[in-house]
Description:
By secondary structure, the protein is an alpha+beta fold. It has 2 domains: 2-101, Double Stranded RNA Binding Domain (2-Layer Sandwich), CATH 3.30.160.20; 122-231, Double Stranded RNA Binding Domain. It contains 9 helices and 7 strands. It has a 4-stranded mixed β-sheet. The longest helix is centred in the last third of the chain and has 23 residues, at 209-231. The relative contact order is 0.07.
Amino acid sequence: MAHIKAQPSPSLCDPSFPVITEAIRGPEEDKDANKSEISLVFEISLKRNLPLSFEVIKESGPPHMKSFVTRVTVGDFIAEGEGNSKKLAKRRAAATVLQELSKLPPLPVIEKPRLYIKRRPKTIIKASPEYGQGMNPISRLAQIQQAKKEKEPEYVLFSERGIQRRREFIMQVEVGEETATGTGPNKKTAKRNAAEAMLLHLGYKASSPVLEKAGKRGENQEWDDQNSDQTGTPKGILHLSPDVYQEMEASRNKTVPAPAVGYLSSKEMNQTSSSFFSTSVSPSCTPA
């Protein structure tokens, strides 16, 4: 184990001290000129995987003029430093061991292999005609515009017509300089149809038929809910027109009537019972 004898350490005020520290730095360490000797020792030990330890081995002198000796061990290299404080002794020990560490051969440069990550062309996928066939047309059109980094679609209620219970809404959508319209029994359905019309106009394929059926089922449900709210009829109760009601009553009256049951009053019941249970006396049995 290499052991460096303790030599009189130069004072920090000595002009030759910076010269020594500069001499132990190689050309590759010019960027570490602002780092302390202790930091450089820690970096070298970390890069070369060497164990490092600092230890105060001696303390002498009166309380107002103490002297400390610190030993540093870096792998097989040992050095000592002396000073009137622990910090100064540690720094001088690090400066001494750096002179020996600078004599070590340089570490081989290992180039890290570059990682090439293949990124998916999201814009190309989203711009294909088949993209988003299983999506809602409104969301599908918005995502396509975001992929193109263009302005999002703008929807405007173009017209509203029809009677109160049979209203028809016309919604207009604008994408850039292109416009398309869609109709429906409510604003939501009209907006969906407008987005679907715009997708077809831009060259995209129509939505999935399953989704279209599901959308129609949802539209019918919304239409039923709207009618129930307007008429005030609770859900599950069928509202019949007067003509239908009369036909149902007429068909009901045509059925075979049940036998009529007559009810007797209490007085009639008494008369009937008395006549039923009375016995007639024959003339032959009349007493003489």
